[in-house]
């Protein structure tokens, strides 16, 4: 089945479904057996990984350019919606969430974020749900960060702010008033 060739340029950010956002470093020719194959060399700085994808198989592998800002805004808007029905057993839902994360599709990532985000500060999450949520959020934030020219942590925070996700309670935080009171009592 013939596939159309995707037109990528060195230095361009691309999305590889199972790894997230990477930077196309170059296209090089490699000899494998008696064949010469053109390979795209993609650097995933955050994962400390370099991936080589044959040019002829790029589309089939799911490699794609970054989403447009409009598509990213649509994905974030859908993540603000009401969580989907939770009628399936957790193992099946977790497998579906994993599949959505590995699809690299911003709308499917948004579904995972929407379904697993905490709605109030008192909501709790299982360890596995939290891990899936954080992976989906990170994948969305990778693309958001490149599109908005910000770092990954700032992008994650921005997305959670837009969604209205309550911040974690820092049990080690000391209220300034409490600290001042304890200083005064130490002096007495």
Top-tier CATH class of the largest domain: Mainly Alpha
Structural class: alpha+beta
Distance between the termini: 83 Å
Number of alpha- plus pi-helical segments? 7
Q: Outline the biggest β-sheet.
A: 5 strands, antiparallel
**In percent, how helical is the residue content?**
40-55%
Hey, roughly how much beta strand do the residues contain?
15-25%
Mean pLDDT: 84
Q: What is the CATH architecture annotation of the largest domain?
A: Up-down Bundle
Rg, rounded, reads 21 Å
Give helix and strand order, one letter per element, not per position.
EEEEHEHHHHHH
CATH structural fold name of the largest domain: Methane Monooxygenase Hydroxylase, Chain G, domain 1
What's the domain count? 2
Question: What do you see in this structure?
Answer:
It contains seven helices and five strands, in the order ββββαβαααααα. With 188 residues, it is an alpha+beta fold. It has two domains: 13-65, Beta Barrel (Thrombin, subunit H); 69-163, Methane Monooxygenase Hydroxylase, Chain G, domain 1. A five-stranded antiparallel beta sheet has the order 4-3-2-1-5. The chain is elongated and about 60 Å long. It starts with 12 loop residues before the first strand and ends with a helix.
